[in-house]
């Protein structure tokens, strides 16, 4: 979920499959924004002899729109190169990896980071930047935190990291995709006459002990905003940026016979995209998911009807009879969900939430919107804005935000009163959840860049 295996074609290409995007004002460096894009979903920690890595044949990008048209004004490009030190071994490493230049580490990656501006200006920020290895186990990677720390590169006023991290997104995939079941409410599910559940159960974190590959940047706020704006006025339109990630491949690929090598040519073609969590996963119908992955946010008006009348909102009263009567009435009224259209496609205008806005204009575009003038919370709430914490989702997204619960509750109707004061949400709408919190993530988040936890190693996490 969020965006793990969310479309038929990209599910066959995990190296180019974006899983999550995060954007937040850095809590330990408040004049910067941290951007994180994760790829290669659902990595089992125990692997080998070929461990997970970025694709040399994939162009990874993190985009920022600061003019509200759904098109990139600033883009950070990552291009990877894989190196072999020993052509005559099948092993990833032939001894303990004590440093990023260890001769024991056979297959390693470096990358080039480039900043591209809408006007065409291109700046290479760093070349031959080293990635850390995957976390293999106590003999191969005995001090993994030190290896990862060495792979955090400082480039002037910016920091960058590219490598394996612990999956920080928590979700009960096994239950949710079993016909919309939520374990804390499973006894209320219609169960299709099967009577499988008689009482609630705690959520199960399907992504626990799994890893991802992260592209992480920490950059000055003025790097991202229109004309370098940097201030404290939350109401200023220049305070809000839109963020999304893409992965692209060359248009043509030829498999060379009897060589084991491919030849790629032609322009890059976008094959993966992600802005708001769960957008393509839950809102876009199956037949259009691959199309959505190929487009820019500027083209998202064609998907607005699926946000205005989400399928899941219609399913909840059917799957949980009698639990969501107010939502059922709202669905049957045919009124478009102006609350969801604002949250996901335009941002929230001034005057809706007192003292807050992250509105980017009339262009309907799926982007993770962040008002950079909102300071980090001193006491963060994992439910973000809906719980009064304006520094959290859907104002950007922090690594620990409970986006599943927030979006379930929004779809169930808790955000409707933002645009219709006469609407009273169902009591269950404010309680619906898959039953998980950050406590269900085994490897804890960090309080510093790159914020996601140390990846799970295969020795201690063989499952």
Model description:
The chain is α+β, with helices and mostly antiparallel strands and 463 residues long. It has one domain. 14% of the residues lie in helices and 25% in strands. It has nine helices and twelve strands. The strands form two sheets. Strands 3, 4, 5, 6, 10, 11 and 12 form a seven-stranded antiparallel sheet that branches. Strands 1-2-9-8-7 form a five-stranded antiparallel sheet, with no helix packed on it. The longest helix is centred in the C-terminal third of the chain and has 10 residues, at 403-412. The radius of gyration is 22 Å and the shape is globular. The protein starts with 17 loop residues before the first strand and ends in a 51-residue tail after the last helix.
What would a concise description of this structure say?
14% of the residues lie in helices and 25% in strands. With 463 residues, the protein is an alpha+beta fold.
Number of helices: 9
Low-confidence stretches: none
Count of distinct structural domains:
1
What share of residues is helical?
10-25%
- How would the global form be characterised? globular
Q: What is the SS-derived class?
A: alpha+beta
The separation of the N and C termini measures 20 Å
- Profile the largest sheet: 7 strands, antiparallel
Mean pLDDT: 96
Query: What percentage of the residues does DSSP assign to strands (E)?
Result: 25-35%
Multimeric status of the protein: single chain
Total E-strand runs: 12
Give the topology string: H per helix, E per strand.
Answer: EEEEEEHEEHEEEHHHHHHEH
Radius of gyration: 22 Å
